[in-house]
Design a protein that fits this description.
The protein is of the alpha+beta class and 293 residues long. The protein contains four helices and 17 strands.
């Protein structure tokens, strides 16, 4: 597949996220190419409504076809950068997948399949027939959570309970990072929905926190194997689609993060997106000269 950028700013190898319908500028591309010679002569213009509602290539007969005239406006002439990319799923900013690290001890009794999507409040895997649930957050679970606890991990737990409908934000204690009676009650309801004992506290290993829904890409464990605390059992990405494109070093100044792009899929359908990240390539080093003696 290929990704095209309609703007000229700054570029490196990067990722483009897909979105909805094709952008309007693509329909103007033939007209923009036609005025390139004028831009080279020192006049920079852009063309809007180039065919005026008529069929492209229609002949003009006298003054009876006013819509055949093209309206122009002054502005920058977009540049185009084309590259071939790989369609996949976004993960961490450095491109590495999420690691699902076990914190419970016991026997692995259920595992997800590769490609399976797991969302907030759903079990990721099972240890000794107890589910390990996915909660949204960026703070790794490092301790049991119960009444009286506070901190960023409690704040993420409270936000999850609200998002899943087990609690109201107005009832969660004096501050959003405090574990109070409302947190315990909401957590007990989540545990009941999972078929677990409604203790109202979160034991270490009962949940994993990841930024959002995940798509399993690798399973490093086997059914019946040991779930050892600290071992990575699974790898996953987000469910957000992206295209990774290698841009030639000579075009580094042609695409910047945030620039719109047009992505042509393998079925030749186009979808718009935007450049979301890039890797910075360092300048080439000149060869070292040997000093003669």
């Amino acid at each position: 597949m290929s990704a095209h950028s309609p703007q000229a700013t700054e570029s490196r190898s990067g990722a483009a996220e897909t979105s909805g319908r094709p952008p309007r500028w693509r329909r103007q591309r033939p007209a923009l190419a036609a005025v390139g010679v004028v831009a080279a002569a020192g006049i920079v213009i852009g063309v809007t409504n180039p065919f005026g509602g008529t069929t492209p290539g229609a002949r003009v007969a006298g003054n009876s076809y006013p819509t055949a005239l093209a309206h122009v406006r002054q502005g920058p002439l977009p540049a185009q950068v084309t590259g071939v990319g790989a369609l996949g799923y976004a993960a961490q900013p450095d491109g590495s997948p999420y690691a699902v690290v076990d914190r419970a001890g016991g026997t692995i009794t259920a595992l997800p399949g590769i490609g399976q999507v797991i969302r907030q409040g759903q079990p990721v895997y099972w240890v000794s027939n107890h589910p390990v649930v996915l909660l949204n957050g960026r703070t790794p679970v490092s301790r049991p959570l119960s009444a009286g606890a506070s901190g960023p991990d409690v704040a993420e737990l409270n936000a999850d309970l609200v998002a899943m409908g087990y609690a109201a934000s107005s009832s969660l204690g004096p501050s959003p990072d405090s574990f109070g009676a409302a947190t315990a009650s909401a957590l007990a309801r989540l545990q009941g929905a999972l078929g677990e004992a409604q203790t109202g506290s979160l034991a270490l290993g009962q949940a994993v926190f990841l930024p959002g829904p995940v798509r399993i890409t690798q399973v490093n464990a086997a059914l019946g194997g040991n779930a050892d605390p600290g071992v990575t059992l699974l790898h996953a990405t987000s469910t957000r689609r992206q295209v990774l494109v290698n841009i030639d070093a000579t075009q580094q100044s042609s695409l910047a993060v945030g620039d719109p792009v047009l992505i042509t899929l393998p079925n030749y359908q186009d979808t718009p997106g935007h450049a979301s990240s890039r890797s910075r390539a360092g300048p080439a080093r000149p060869p070292r000269r040997s000093r003669s003696t």
